[in-house]
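Problem 12. The chain below contains 362 residues. Write out its predicted structure in token notation.
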Amino acid sequence: MDDKLFDIFSEETEVPECVLRRVDETLETIENSAESHRGYQRKNWKRSLILTFAAVMAFGATVFAAEKYIGIYGFFQEVGNKMPEEAKELIEKDPVQQEDGDSILTYTVKEALCDKNSVQVVVEVTAKERGKYLLAGQDALNEDPVRNLGIESDKTIEEYAAEKGLTIIKVGASFDFDSDLGIETAVGNYRNLEDDVVDFYSSAVKTNESKNLTVSCIGTATLPDAKCVDDVMRTNITFQLEDKSQGKSMTYVPVDGEGITADGKVKILSADIEETEVGDYVTIHCIFLEECDSISLDVMDLNGNLWQLSDLGGGSEVAESGKEATFQRSYQKTDLADEIGIRGYDYETNTTYEPVKMKLKK
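Solution.
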């Protein structure tokens, strides 16, 4: 019966990688400590442990609820993005890192992904002394629901920690903006695996287009009695990351040669698109003929469908009236056509302007 259940479960259920990792760790403990099981094969132990996981899932237990978000792919999907299969193949796991700092926490880079334009990373933070702390993101308030951390409970963070006798530590892990990657802003998210283990996800658009990158991250830990910035424990993490992506660049120009939109307020000059396995990165070159800093520009297909933005931490820059400006956008990967549209939109008046039709520059 176990064999049949195992076959069914293995074929129809995707076991999270973090669960398989813990299964292997448990197996190692069993094999090292149980001499009486010398004749019992490792595959049978693994079969039993995975069947136990199957039973937990079948009866709706929530012990693994937070784990489904772990990894770049899970975090990326959670916010509504779609990660192409070819991008998943570029994810590097457990890169060799250097860690410098004196903290009560350990910071470990679990996954990293980059292409020419962006970089993503997942850093796992673990308390060195287990069972004493509840780790919460820097932006978390003690009165927030602990469910926000990925922990299944109806209590607040403060109530949950008090009930379990845990000290709340506010934790952060993201990119070092002073590094040579040229990162100005980043998007982040986090999920607790356990009370004192949390995975932090960060993504950002970078300007350094080197194939070999030195990625720097900063981990912080703040105890409740911290009174100033000097009391914040800081850990510097660095690792090497190779850009293995294959990018393709193309430029679009106005079909009519004029490119005027937003009732004559904006002149579209061109749009440069860099297509990689991760997504499409667009730089729209334009001139604001009048002052109109509430107007944004977006890409759409000729059927009027806006391209889906991909929130990788990038931004846009608008120049003064009469000077050239650039709008930078990160989009989910799409099939590039020979013609696209650039739409102007005034977010103060909710006015949508007629798009400028663009053609691929030969």
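Discussion. The longest strand covers residues 212-222. Students who got a different answer should revisit the alignment rule from Section 12.3.
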